[in-house]
Amino acid sequence: MKKFKSSIRIAFRALTMNKLRSALTMLGIVIGVASVIATVAIGSGATQRIQDQIASIGSNIIIITPGSTSSSGVRLGTGNAVTLSESDARDIPAQCPDVELAAPYVRGSAQIVSGTGNWATSIYGVTPDYLTIRQLSVADGAEFVQQDVDSANKVAVLGKTPVDNLFGGADPIGQTIRIKNVPFTVVGVLTPKGQSAQGQDQDDVILLPISSAKRDVIGKKSANADSVDTIMMQAKSASVIQAALDEAQALLRQRHHLQTSEDDDFSIRNLQELFAAQEASASIMAIMLAAIASVSLVVGGIGIMNIMLISVRERTREIGLRQAIGAKTRDVLTQFLVEAVALSVVGGIAGIVVGIGASALISRLAGWTTAVGWGAVALAVLFSALVGIGFGYYPARKAAFLDPIEALRSE
After folding, report:
1. Of 297, 299, 218, 233, which Cα lies nearest the Cα of 99?
2. Model's pTM, two decimal places?
3. Which residues in the chain show pLDDT less than 70?
4. Are 331 and 11 in contact (CB under 8 A)?
5. Which of 60, 109, 325, 354 gives the lowest tally of CB atoms within 10 Å of its CB?
6. Rounded to whole angstroms, how far apart are CA atoms 55 and 50?
């Protein structure tokens, strides 16, 4: 132990004798470790953002949208047909054992006018179950209730963005807004959700009772006054999502009188699968970026090997003297290995500081979410030490096995 402490002391003395050379040697390790930490932080941040989006949308969600239509032999895209209805949404939870709730909604956009401002935003005509499925709550005021839907009351629940742009700092509850020149009373303000993983503002929205929205704002999309744009379903648990999906699909095919040979006239998607695919893609991208960044560590290791070989050549007489007064091969080997590891570890610690700073800077300037994990930091330090051992072993071995007599003769 005493010899090891002495080796560390001698190693740091040797490195500080050539400060500029040592700093330049460590630069490759600093860049490599910083790159690994920054790229892993970006990848972890992307994964966290997807998980936050899942949480903000709600759990166990299944989305049903209208299917495609054909015109003169040309198949149009999904959503062009008007095939879903409010009665479909009512029957799904009643007849599908694994479905907790189903909420139909219609959507559009309009210019909203208040007494002090105006704002263009998205309009959703929904039922109270929509707020439950989406895990939406009100920060101020109250939600509208089923009675408001049944009576087509002109009430509105606003997201934070319309509130800020229409009322500034004033209290919006009880105030009147006009949507397509139709007055609505603000009864509630939604708790902020923030941006989605795609960068969309989830708070830039106004919710109306579906009956009021269809009659006064969005209008009917077909001769069928019962039609809706989308049905959002919630399974009773994550374990029965596929069962709930299958039950809803079978029920809708039956309600829409589709024959076995006919395709579905609707599209049904499990959002968990979509988000899982996005999360897997983000993880793979993070691994690829980290692997590319690790090349910098290899380059830094080669730099350490190069400098250590030069150091061995410069200190040949010193090595010979140490061997002549009793230093063993093991002692010389340890000495030069400690120097190589010291270079890489000090460079690794500096790289951690630079990497964390770079992650914070990227997050601030680019608006990306980053998450620096201590596991990645520990791995970076360990990897940098292994680089020092791996690339420092050959120069250390070369020094340890020098012939003492030849070493003393060198100039």
Report:
1. 233
2. 0.62
3. 1-8, 10-12, 14-15, 47, 50-59, 68-81, 196-199, 220-224, 272-279, 281-282, 286, 289-290, 293, 366-368, 403-411
4. no
5. 325
6. 9
pLDDT number for residue 197: 55
What is the sign of the dihedral through the CA atoms of 248, 229, 268 and 205?
negative
Residue 339: which H helix or E strand, with range? Answer: helix 329-366
* Contacting residues for 81 by C-beta, under 8 A, at least 6 apart: 66, 67, 68, 69, 265
Q: What local confidence, expressed as pLDDT, does residue 75 receive?
A: 47
Sort 260 into a burial class: Cβ within 10 Å, 0-12 / 13-18 / 19+: exposed
What b-and-e string marks burial along 320-343, b requiring 16 or more CB atoms within 10 Å of the CB?
Answer: bebbeeebeeebbbbbbbbbbbbb
Other CB atoms closer than 10 Å to residue 254's CB: what's the count? Answer: 11
Q: Where are the domains of the chain?
A: 2-53+277-409, 101-235
Two tokens at 348? 């690794």
With H, G, I as helix, E, B as strand and everything else as coil, classify residue 112: strand
Instruction: Give me the pLDDT at residue 237, please.
Output: 86
Closest CA to 397 of 350, 341, 336: 336
Q: Residue type for 108, please?
A: G
Confidence at residue 213, expressed as pLDDT on a 0 to 100 scale: 92
Helices 329-366 and 316-324 pack at an angle, to 10 degrees, of 140
